Amino acid sequence: MKSLLFEYVLRLADNGLVLAQRLGEWVGKGPILEEDIASTNVGLDLLGQARLWLAYAAEVESSFAERGRTEDELAFFREEKDFRNLLLVEQPNGNYADTIARQYLFDQWHVLVLAELACSRDPRIAAIAAKAHKEARYHVERSSQWVIRLGDGTDVSHARMRDAVDGLWMYTGEMFTVDAVERPLIDAGIGADNEALAAPWQAAVRSTFAEATLDVPEDSWMQGSGGGGGKQGAHTEYLSRMLAEMQVLPRSYPQARW
Amino acid sequence: MVDDAMAHTMRSADAEAAIWRALGDVMDPEIPVVSIVELGIVRGVRVADERCTITLTPTYSGCPATRVIEDDARVAASKVAPGTVEVHTALAPAWTTDWVAPEARARLAAFGIAPPARAGGGAIVTMHRRAIRCPQCGSVRTEELSRFGSTPCKAQYRCLDCREPFDYFKPH
User: Fold this and answer.
1) CB A61 within 8 A of CB A69
2) Alpha helix (H) residue ranges in chain A
């Protein structure tokens, strides 16, 4: 059970870590100053949450493994196939509509999963989730407003928002799957039941998209939904290149200190 | 013996009070007009057996000031604590701006930061629909410029009457 818990917490950590890194790529390049600041502030929240999850994962690992890794080792010295984030969050930034669509589709799931986890029987998970939930609530308010502003904006912004949603939709199915790692934790009241989050997520997305004059795409083949996605370490080509940049400094200078 | 125990408890209580006072002088590194006690960051001070334990709670998960605040608190407490000082982090209950002290709210406004509206529990805070008072001229005709600002805890606003931009401490 301890190793399952480690895997599970790692998934929560990696979603935040990878998405924070993606948002950090906007530093100095945001479309307007306010959005440059907003994107990176959201990234900062997610990075802070990822650190809380990683620190817990490190503690859990040291309770069953011969040698547990530290928070930093987990972040900087794991290979791509050992990352457990959703495929959605590793997708490249693209144009700003792509970034906003990725953010909204994730945020809308994130608030739901964190609300569930705030009631987890694992007190540490409950504490981190309750704290993160307050931040995620603010994130989804902002990203949904941008979906509406761009979707219900000009012909160009509408087209870009529509294309962004169409391009990312196939990665959303993975958020609502439950695999052999998660099932026992859900049964024990520790993990969140992703399958039960599908209906409230779809309802919220439908409502936002209606206001944004966007069509909800048809469900087609969902990447990763067959049990071979980001949560199991089967990533898209984009993650390894992102990690190369994120990890290069500590890998080249393992003893480097601020 | 009873007298000894009582004297010991008194000394601990005195030491705790002295540490609270010392922490009351530790200002937030990014908002230097309010202390970490007034912001609700200090959750507890305990002195027992020549050991002092300070419990802090982070504001936002990723706030870069958290580490500085821990160091500042340790230094300030060490000056008055009878023995060693340890800093603990408590995540639950999660920090809320409802813990910000009333006198600190007035000082925030005087510093040019509109103090947070009540966050309350549960419901999503649609703060952009609330009237936020301009800390410069007092007008409530203000509008949000951006949902994020110079620190994780603030948003950017502007006043439609005096035309000055200002920071708003987000209810959280």
Assistant:
1) yes
2) 2-24, 33-64, 71-76, 87-90, 96-117, 123-151, 155-168, 182-187, 194-211, 237-252
Per-residue pLDDT tens over the stretch B78-114: 999 888 999 999 999 999 999 999 999 999 999 999 9
User: Do residues A218 and A212 touch, judged by C-beta distance below 8 A?
Assistant: no
DSSP, collapsed to helix, strand or coil, labels residue A194 as helix
Q: What is the ipTM of this complex?
A: 0.85
Provide the number of CB pairs (under 8 Å) joining chain A to chain B: 71
Q: Which domains does chain B have, with CATH numbers?
A: 2-89 (3.30.300.130), 100-169 (no CATH)
Partner-chain contact A38 B146, CB within 8 Å: yes
Q: Considering only CB atoms, which chain A residues are within 8 Å of B146?
A: 34-35, 37-38
How far does CA B137 lie from the centroid of its chain?
A: 25
Tokens matching residue A91: 């997708």
From the list B94, B125, B156, the residue facing A131 with the nearest CB is B94
Residue A116 near chain B (CB below 8 Å): no
Domains and CATH numbers, chain A: 2-252 (1.20.1260.10)
Please tell me the pTM assigned to this model. 0.92
Go through chain B and tell me how many residues it has: 172
DSSP state of B27: B
Q: pLDDT tens across A22-43, in order?
A: 999 999 999 999 999 999 999 9
